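Issue: ligand-bound run for heme C - logging full I/O for the record.

Environment: standard queue, default settings, no custom constraints.

Inputs:
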Amino acid sequence: MYRYKYALSLVLMAIVLWALAACAAAQPTPPPSSEDGRPAPPAEYAAMTNPLKGNASAIEAGKSIYNSNCASCHGEKGLGDGPAAKSLNPPPKPLAQEAYLTDAYLYWRIAEGGGMEPFRSVMPAWKSFLKQEQIWQVITYLRFLMG
Ligand code: HEC
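Outputs:
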């Protein structure tokens, strides 16, 4: 009889432990915070916010800028899978999945590119090719791709 109870309590304990483990596993992973481990944008970019946020014609203009300048690396839908992506190290980022990045960070990285520490990538510095307004248009389109 005692032995039976002992076995039963072991089984119960196992069930409790399993339930606890299942609860712990079900905890949602916290959403990434602002730059999620990336360096913060330098002071001259830090306060920038998108003046064209949500603007429908900016989305259209940004889409054509994106398709001709960014999609070859970052992919048509912004998933980091453009035709050039496979040959790049570090690889292009899946921008459409990085909604947590701030406007300031996006502007800084698009303007200055990857030719600096700690990035050291082929990401071009677009400030020589795109006007400020065009960079905001492409960011407005990125926000649209982010959903
Ligand atoms: C020649 C390939 C190439 C092209 C073209 C390119 N990128 Fe990139 N981009 C990269 C690579 C590689 C990275 C990842 C390394 C890094 O952060 O520098 C990157 C990083 C970025 C980041 C930083 C994302 C993060 O998670 O930190 C942004 C924003 C970005 N690109 C936007 C753009 C936009 C907008 C365009 C077009 C105007 C563009 N890129 C064109 C290669 C490219």
